[in-house]
Design brief:
By secondary structure, the protein is an alpha/beta fold. Helix content is 45%, strand content 14%.
């Protein structure tokens, strides 16, 4: 009781130093709190939205009214004020006509086009969208495109895909016979469709023989522009002159770097794993016949993961007919087709 009287005395002494408007605001808050308490029947005090609005408006102009609030906590009033501020600016920022919002599906499509085609600008993507039936402004396309900090450029996958048709690779590998003699198989593969262009066998490889194989593998109008090879001494001056005469640029890999000629190395690995490791070679003619049969299977039937499960010579999709099986290499592999 004494503490309450002491606080009242201090308030009376400090009242001359307060502004008249502030005192009126505090009196209005006190009177309104009394009205709310008289309105209460039982239980907690129930405040209406009008009551909240009244307290918030006074708090905006006279923050000192927090000292005379008793039926609500000061942090509650501050929370109401912030909520009202958010509602006001949400109302202030409401759409007032103009362009309709761009749909999420269209924004995703714009971003996809921008990522997949780094050389395309907003006009190019806008033209494609118009052809797809989307009515959108070019400025909206520019807004939702991927922002790049460096000039647009193609990726390595695109670069290699565009140059692969002009590149071929060649190599030799050894196959033992039943009498433990060594035969040499020569292969040439194109990097574009992984097709096995040429395969032949000899017991005595020479530079002249390799040069003749290159000539027979490529007619003059079908020669690649680049030929990748290792630094085997078998590729002598005769081979390099033949390549130059056919308009093919010789590209030897670095010493002891077979990974730089990975396409033909993978091909040789497939030939070993899927063919010669499972047969006993009787002689040169026998190996040539076996490799020729495998080359036909490899080019026209065998599916490749790098070609989206297609063969180098694309196989049509068969949806009707009875499935039949044909043995290849004596049953080492099979070809399934509909007839």
């Amino acid at each position: 009781m004494m503490i309450g009287l002491f606080c009242f005395a201090l308030a009376v002494l400090a009242s001359p130093f307060r502004s008249k408007l502030r005192l009126e605001a505090e009196n209005a808050v006190l009177r309104h709190q009394l009205i709310v308490l008289r309105r209460r029947r039982r239980g907690r005090v129930r405040l209406t939205n009008l009551d909240r609005w009244f307290f918030v408006q006074l708090y905006r102009r006279f923050p000192a009214i927090l000292k005379v609030l008793t039926i609500i906590r000061p942090e509650t009033l501050v929370r109401w004020h912030r909520a009202g501020f958010r509602c006001y600016w949400r109302w202030k920022s409401r759409p007032r006509g103009g362009r309709p919002p761009v749909e999420t599906e269209l924004r995703t499509l714009i971003r996809q086009m921008s990522v997949e085609n780094p050389l395309w600008g907003a006009p190019r993507i806008h033209g494609e969208l118009l052809k797809l039936g989307f009515e959108v402004a070019q400025s909206s396309v520019a807004k939702y495109m991927v922002k790049r900090r460096v000039p647009p450029s193609q990726g390595w996958r695109t670069f290699l895909h565009n140059h692969a048709p002009d590149v071929a690779a060649m190599d030799l590998f050894v196959v033992p016979t039943v009498s433990f003699d060594l035969l040499y198989a020569f292969v040439i593969v194109r990097l574009d469709r992984r097709d096995l262009v040429w395969i032949n066998v000899t017991a005595h490889p020479t530079a002249e023989w390799v040069a003749r194989q290159i000539t027979e593998a490529f007619p003059w109008s079908e020669a690649p522009r680049y030929m990748i090879r290792d630094r085997d001494c078998i590729y002598g001056a005769v081979v390099t002159r033949r390549l130059r005469a056919m308009g093919i640029r010789d590209k030897p890999v670095a010493p002891a770097s077979p990974w730089q000629n990975g396409f033909v190395e993978r091909l040789i690995g497939s030939i070993r794993r899927e063919c010669v490791d499972h047969i006993i070679v009787l002689g040169e003619m026998n190996l040539r016949r076996v490799l020729k049969s495998y080359a036909d299977y490899y080019n026209g039937i065998r599916t490749h993961r790098s070609l989206n499960k297609d063969a180098p010579v694309s196989r049509p999709v068969q949806r009707t007919g009875v499935i039949s099986s044909r043995a290849i290499l004596g049953g080492l592999h099979h070809h399934y087709a509909r007839v």
